[in-house]
Amino acid sequence: MHRSLRSLLCGTLAASLLALPAFGFDTAARSAWVYDMTTHTVLMDKNGNVPVPPASMSKLMTINMLFEALRDGRVTMDTTFAVSSRATEMTGRGGSTMYLQEGDRPSVNDLLHGMIVNSGNDACIVVAEGLAGSEEAFAAQMTERAHALGMDQSFFANSSGWPDPNHKMSMRDLGLLARRLIEEFPEYYPIFAETSYNYKDRAPANANNRNPLLKLGIGADGLKTGHTAEAGYGLVGSVKQGDRRIIFAFAGTESDKARAEEAERIASWAFRQFALKTMAKAGTRLADAPVHLGEVDRVGLVPAADIRLLMPAVAQGQLQGEVVYLGPVQAPITKGTVLGELVIEVPELGQQRVPLVAETDVAKGGFMVRLKTAARVLQDRYLGQEAPAS
To answer: 242 in a domain, yes or no?
Structure first.
C-alpha cells in the first residue's frame, strides 16, 4: 500500500530538496566519485564505476589488509617483518619509497607510516610478503577480499599500484574503501592526517605527505594520492566540517598542481552547494496504517531516527515522496517494529529510503474485536454477492 508524502509533512519536506548535484559544476578529472558520509548520498558520479589504473591510491587496499590483520590479532603494531631484495629493488626502479634496506626489521607501525605518509612501494612489498608469503599471493587475496566487500571493479596485480595492465580500480570502489577505513578502523585512521615520517632519518626529501589538502586547514584528514603516466594524477580525499564528512576519489588530472586545485574545488563544492537539514524528528508521525484484529484499528508510522537530508543552495520546487507499507498490519505489534518506509525521490540523486516503525505497541483485540471483524467480513461478502434474479 502506498500513501502520498506531500500531505503528511505539512510543508516541512515540501520545497526542501530538488537537487541537481552539479549545478553547472564539472570536474576536470576523467573519473570521479563524491559521497556524503553523513547522509549516505552520492553527490557526483563521473565514470565512477569504470575500472582505471589507480596508481598509488590502490595502496589503500594493502593498508586495509594490514588493518584487518591488526584487528584479528594476527599481528600487532610491534610485529616486525623482514625486508627482501625484491622490496629494496623497488627503490632503484623509481617511484615512492621509505628507503628500506636489506637487514632492516621494520615494525607494522613503521610500515603503516611508510605506506600512508611516504607512499612507499617497498613498504607495500614487505607487508605483502610478511602477510601472504609472496606479493603474487597477496595480490590475489586483495582482489578476493575487495570483491567480498562489494568492490567488484577492483583487480590487483601487485601491492603497490605499480603499473600493470591487470591492476585496476574504479573511483567508486576507492570511495567505498575510504569509507571502510574511516568507519571500521578509527584507532588507526589518524595516521592518514600525519604530514611527515622519516624512517631512520634516511629520506628527508621524501618525508612529507603528498596529500595537498592536509595543509589547507579545511578539515581534511586523509587519504591517498596517486600518479603514474597512464593514470595521471589522482587523489582519494576525506574532509570533515561540522556534522558532515565527505569523501571523494578522482583520477586523470594533468599535473600535481591540477590535482591539488581539483581536490580543493571538489571539497569546496560539496560543502558550499549542500547544507545538512533535519527534515523530520525521530518519532514524528508521518502516516498511519490499518491494524487487523488489534485493540485499536490504526498504528502510527514514525522514523526511528531524525531524517537528515542535504538541501542544495539553489533548491526549488517540491520534494516527491511517499510512505510505503503493506497493510493491514496484523496485531499484536511491538513499538519500534519496522512496518514500512519513506521513499523520497530526489532528482539526480535518486531515491532516499528511510525505515518507518510502529509508534506504539498494539495488543491483540479481545473477543468483541474479533466478533466485529468477523461480522464485517461476512457483511462485505454478502454485499458483494450478486442479487438473485426475480
So the answer is: yes
On whether the CB atoms of residues 189 and 197 are closer than 8 A, the answer is no
Contacts (Cβ under 8 Å, ≥6 apart) of 284? 302, 303
As a three-state string, the secondary structure of 104-153 is CCCEHHHHHHHHHCCCCHHHHHHHHHHHHCCHHHHHHHHHHHHHHCCCCC
Instruction: Find the CATH number of the domain harbouring 208.
Output: 3.40.710.10
Query: For residue 41, what are the β-bridge partners?
Result: 36
Q: What is the CA radius of gyration of the chain?
A: 27
Q: Which of 3-12, 147-156, 305-314 has the lowest mean pLDDT?
A: 3-12
Closest CA to 170 of 148, 149, 155: 155
Please indicate, yes or no, if residue 207 is contained in any of the structural domains.
Answer: yes
The one-character DSSP state at 74 is S
pLDDT value of residue 379: 60
Q: C-alpha cell of 19?
A: 537537487
336 with 258, same domain: the answer is: no
The reply to whether 343 and 243 lie within a common domain is: no
Low-confidence winner among 41-55, 116-130, 179-193, 282-296 (lowest mean pLDDT): 282-296
Instruction: Write down the mean pLDDT value for the chain.
Output: 87
Q: Are 106 and 81 in contact (CB under 8 A)?
A: yes
How many structural domains comprise the chain? 2
CA distances from 21 to 43, 92, 242, 247 (A): 6, 45, 21, 15
CA angle 103, 107, 110 (to 5 degrees): 105
- Bin 304: left if φ > 0, else alpha if -120 < ψ < 50, else beta: alpha
Q: What is the mean pLDDT of residues 99-109?
A: 96
For the chain, percent of residues with pLDDT exceeding 90:
69
Residue 360: domain span: 2-15+281-372
pTM confidence score: 0.82
- Which CATH number do you get for residue 300? 2.60.410.10
Confidence of residue 351 (pLDDT cuts 50, 70, 90): confident
Pairing relationship of beta strands 329-330 and 287-292 according to DSSP bridges: parallel
